[in-house]
Known about the structure:
With 117 residues, this protein is an all-beta fold. The chain has no helices and seven strands. Helices cover 0% and strands 47% of the residues.
Amino acid sequence: MSDATKLEPIIRNVADIKSVRGVCGFRRSLVTGADTDVANVSYLEIDNSRNHYHKQMTEFYYVLKGSGEIVLDGERRPIKEGELALIPPRVWHTSEGDMEVLIVGVPPLETEDVHFE
């Protein structure tokens, strides 16, 4: 039996979590690597996102509200509410626009696996 199957349930309200400045905007971490070795989950308000990549982490980027553009390896693509982008490791990415997104990172390396030019 893996440690992941021994997890205790977690219920968190995004309104109860302090927003902190991150690489892509203002982040509220709902689930972190301290909670589980499976994934991290963050609520993010896009603001002055910086172009970066992850060597190991895959990100699932789901737009909850708003619209804008996501830039994947230099290619700009429109993205809007209800759409999901899967961002594999080593893909340079950033985003622009007025968006609130839910980000799931696998494995949970939300702070230690961020690389810049």
